[in-house]
Histidinol dehydrogenase
Amino acid sequence: MGHKFLKSGSTTETANTPRVDVSAIVKGVIDEIRLTGDDAVRKYSDKYDKWAPQSFKLTQEEILAAIAACPNQTIDDIKQVQANVKAFAAAQRNSIRDFELEIRPGVFLGQKNVPIDCVGAYIPGGRYPLLASAHMTILTAKVAGVRHVVGCTPPIAGKIPNATVAAMHLAGADEIFILGGVQAVVAMAVGTQTIRKVDFIAGPGNAFVAEGKRQLFGEIGIDLFAGPTEILLVADETADPFTIATDILSQAEHGPDSPAVIITTSEVVGQKSIEIIDELLKNLSTGSIAGVSWDAFGEVIVVDSLAEAWKLADEYASEHVQVFTKRPRDALENMSAYGALFLGEKTCVSYGDKVIGTNHVLPTRKAARYTGGLWVGKFLRTVTYQEVKSSEASGELGRLCGRAARAENFEGHARSGDLRAQKYLSDKVAWIQDYQELGNGTKARL
């Protein structure tokens, strides 16, 4: 057994990214917005996006104007994609149930799934208007039952991104702000004079957005600690190198630091995929970005067997895993660490990113080892309740609680149990007897 690298990444550092102290910059933005609210938000929006309108919040008239400015086909496509996302999210919600269990006579335990009250959704812009993120965050939150969703998205070249606004509105956003970057995340997290404080923030973004979410986590909930987009493709000798190359570049174009890995049992498939990628880059409109990513973070690895391929793929724990093998569903039995699986040549990551209905907010940087991606359940708080209706059961639990608590030296806990044991089983408990003898009227109440 062994691995053979046909191509390795040229660096483990983020390519072409200035060495700036992202953490310190973000902390400064957070501190200033906490202090001065909207004034600081406007300052940073003007600085980073050249955008400082009188109000960042769109009126209903402005939202309708943005929708009207979109081609009819775009609106129809948004609605079709959102129908897919909604159907899958609704199935997820239906899989989560409340229940009540009588674990012993007279003792009832229950579980409820309660939606978060107010959620902030960050919809990236900048290089690309990622209107699909509106479906994944806003619509999924609404299917979960979230009462109020605040959506923020940046301007693009100083203009309102009409299609993104349309997607946000049709997904069910209750408020839409044309506001981007870390300043949007911070404003939603801490609240300002015009932007309400939310309880939870979802949505991908650049390094500053991700760092803002990281620093604010705990004060608010977040979906994921997101890094650059990742793709890993497992292929055997039956895979088509042209399809592999096309799909690898579909994700490499996300940014100059997107890992793109091919693990294959066929050296011929691996070598041919490299050759085609190099050719396709010459005529790809986003080739200047995808090429940097492929050069710096692209890998092609030949392994001896599919068993070894599955094992190695799990070690990468990639965000997106495509499976181009004779029996792609074998991955369901042999892999466990991934954000999402895309099974077979007919299924590409781009479908998951844009149209198929599963959520595209997924774990990166090996986070798939401990979490899945954004889903309806992220917007729910699973809470529990309990009720003891039987006097006898309460007394028995009181005896058990007294013993268990004293084993941990928690005398106060033990006494809560003792009290029920005396009340409902007529136990004689020394400390209660002593208290009653003080003649303070407690005896009558007991």
Remarks:
- The chain has 18 helices and 14 strands.
- The domain at 22-223 is CATH 3.40.50.1980 (Rossmann fold).
